[in-house]
Design goal:
The chain is α/β, with parallel strands linked by helices. It contains 7 helices and 5 strands. The protein has a single domain, classed as Rossmann fold. The chain starts with 14 loop residues before the first strand and ends with a strand.
Length: about 200
């Protein structure tokens, strides 16, 4: 799965690969795991996620990354570690790539995402139920790319993150209203989108 988007203000200095982590134990259990208290040390990759990554790496179709930055959640760290081992690269921990915090929905069924997304569609700045606002997620995710653009040139950089933050980032980079982030096709686990 690969899409290409232009930067907001001209040509990218670097080539970016945005990767959603592989299928996780939270996906397997159908639970929302978005807090550092649970996500940093628990709910890593599921056996299915490990298989997905083995398949992806055996048939790698993108440019070889020179840098890998990843969310500090266990599922993204384990995903990034597998890619880094394949390419013999070191990793950079980047907490701004972490999962969107879903507040009072933490630990509940992932069916509850739909309630948050319905509110997002009306107001991307809402924080009802302690949920991190779409606008805040977009700002922190975009800040990572902006910083990389200032410091590097002509590199292929892999960013390993989570479904909702990546959907939000891609919506922002497309110049679309953030309230429309769920109108994009959902990113599959272990998928890569090329910028």
């Amino acid at each position: 799965m690969s899409n290409t988007f232009p930067p907001v203000d001209g040509t990218w200095r670097n080539h970016y690969l945005l990767m959603r982590h592989g299928h996780s134990q939270a996906n397997q259990e159908g639970r929302i795991i978005s807090s550092p208290a649970l996500g940093l040390t628990g709910f890593g990759l599921s056996p299915r996620g490990c298989t997905q990554l083995d398949t992806l790496l055996a048939d790698w179709r993108w440019a070889r990354p020179q840098r890998i930055l990843h969310s500090d959640f266990l599922r993204t760290a384990e995903t990034a570690e597998r890619v880094a081992a394949h390419f013999d690269l070191t990793l950079t921990l980047e907490p701004r790539l972490r999962e969107r915090h879903f507040g009072e929905f933490e630990g509940q069924s992932d069916d509850r995402y739909a309630e948050v997304w319905a509110r997002d569609a009306k107001d991307p700045t809402h924080r009802q139920g302690g949920v991190e606002a779409v606008s805040e997620v977009a700002a922190r995710m975009r800040a990572v790319i902006d910083e990389l653009e200032r410091h590097y040139h002509d590199e292929t950089i892999l960013l390993v993150s989570h479904g909702d933050p990546l959907q939000i980032l891609l919506t922002a980079l497309e110049g679309r209203e953030l309230s429309l982030h769920r109108e994009r096709e959902p990113l599959a686990p272990a998928s890569i989108t090329s910028l």
